[in-house]
Each structure stands twice: as structure tokens, then as C-alpha cells.
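Ticket #4471: structure output looks truncated?

Reporter: J.K.
Steps to reproduce: submitted the chain below (367 residues) through the standard prediction queue, then opened the result file.
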Amino acid sequence: MRVAIVERRTIHKEGESSAKRLHTVAELLAMKGHAVSFYCLRWWEGEDREKIHNGVRYYAVSEDIEDVEWRFAAQLPSKIKEYEPDVIIADGTELAVVMGSKFTCLFLRKPLILDFYEQIKIENGKSRKSEFIMGLADLAVVPSEMIQTSVIEAGCEGKLIEKLPNPIKIKLIKDTKKEKVADIVYSKVLDKNCNLETFLLALAELRDVKWKAAIIGEGEMKELYERQIKDLRISRRVEFLGDVPIERKIAIFKGAHVCVHTALKSGFPRDFLLALACGCVGIAEYHENSSAHELIRPRERGFRITEGEVLHQTIREAAKLPRKEIEEGFFGYDEKNFIEEYIGLIENIGEFKADKLAKDQSDMGVL
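Returned output as attached by the reporter:
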């Protein structure tokens, strides 16, 4: 099978970002023996238009590494046409990219899958445009119920949406030995949405208890929080580890007892899932733009809170549960299951109805 994946900005350019999802799809498809071409802005040095990385062919749609969305989208049909893919999978969050991908699909008479990693933001007065564009998908794939609701509100039909959570490496979890670094862990990019202060304030309320905490991740807010733990007089018990390799991250999770997620925004908190699979008792603070609470419902080793003020009490309750180094209940999130389901979705829309194709061509003025 020949698969074209379209996303302007890649993980190689943005770092450990939400763009990770489509790169996971691309690399797992390549590992399965499928031909995968990833159409994006150039992230590699030099003037070569193509680059092979982890079995995936990356193709620079534009010479301008900062090309705007609409100009990038306009070039897609001519760039993808020669590849003749069996299906196109596109980032559904950029409407211009969706339009460009759909025009390409109509010319090639191939289906379009839109993949979403975050909620859709609809600008004032553009709801009709959004509804039209969301209706162009032959299938939409989302990682969580929260994002599914957002995509439906943006105009996509519910029957076209499949929920497929981001995967984790179960074999790596099984093979990794624990590392006793901390009793309580937090792992996320330390940006303006991480809401780490709620966690730190809760730790300050637990001075009467013996514990150590580790915070994994880098970001613009790190220095602020490093000062805050000094002000709270818990700096000797809290360690900022920065970014760590996945193998060590798993080792730390396996050696910990409780993992806390307080972020205000998270389309799918992979590290929180990883910690749960490593046996951590999970505590998720509910926020409208975070899906973390979905992972602990209805788990016995999970707590959902709606107010940060009760977090310290919840940590005390979580610590009463026995320690574990692995939780088999999360084995279904393995990469093997994920890519097999994704391939199944692709194969099921391989022969989509001719009347839908004709309608799409008419709506978009393609003869």
C-alpha cells in the first residue's frame, strides 16, 4: 500500500510536539512494509527535496521552510500526483491543508483520512466554512472523546469519526527495569498550559509525609517553577529532570507510585498513559480542554478531581494503594494494535462510494 501523509510542521522542526501522532503512524506503516511519503515543510539541512528517515520518505512541498498554510496547500496536488498514493492522511487541524489534500484526492480518485491531535478552533463567522471542510473527509480519526466532540462541533458527521488513542511501547515497558528516583511524578512540556503550580502547592501540603517528586519535561515555564519550589521550601524533595529518553522515562515511572496530571490542555497525554501502564496510580485534574481523565475512567487505580485544592488529599489516598511496576489493563494501547487498527480503517474506506466522490467533485468545482 502507498500512503501519503500531509502535515506542514513536523516533529523534527517542532520538537516533542503534538505533531508526534502522524509521525508514529508513518513510521509504524513503514515498519509494516508499506510505502510512506510524508509531505511537509523542509526540516533538514541542504537543498535536497527529499530525505529518508526511519523508513519514511519526507518530501519538502515548499522551498520556503516558513511557507504559509494556504501557499503550502496550493502546491499539494502537483507534488503528490506523481506518487499516486492509495490513500492520503492529512492533519485535520489546518483547514487550508485539508482543502489542498481533498483536491488531490479528487483528481486521483482516492479517499481522504483526516487525523486530529488537538481540538478544532473555529474563528468567529467561519463556522459554515468549517462545516464544509470537515464534510470533505471520508474518515476522521481522533485520539480521545474530547477531540471527537470538538470535531463534531466543527461540522464533521459523527458516523465518519473513529477514536483511536495514541499508542505506547508495551514491550519496552516489560523489558525496562525500574529506577527509584521519585515516589510522585509529573511529565509534560512545561508551557503555559501545564498548570504545574497546582501540583507544587499540593506537595507543599504534604510536608508531614515522606516523599520525593520528579518533574519530567522542558519548557518556557521551567525557571518560574524552579523558583516556586524554593519559595515553597520543597526544593530538596522535588527534582526537575528535564527531557529524558523514553527508556529512562519508563524506568522512572516503574519506580514511582503516583503520577499526577494537572494540565489545562492536552489532546492526548501520552506520558500519563505511559505512567499508568507502568503501574502508577493516576490522578487527573479535570479540565474542559484536557482528555487525561478519560484514561482513568473507570480504573480502580485512578482518581479524578475537579478542584486543585483537594489534590494533596487525593495523593494521600492514592499512596494507600499497593505499588506496581506494570498494569496489564493498558496492554491494549500497544503500537501493534494501534497500527493494525489504522490499517483496517484505511482498507475499509479503500472503495468508497462513487456518489460521494461525485458530490465532492461538484461541491468543489472539480470536473
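Triage note (M.O.): checked the attachment and the full C-alpha cell line is present. The mean pLDDT is 90.
Status: closed, working as intended.
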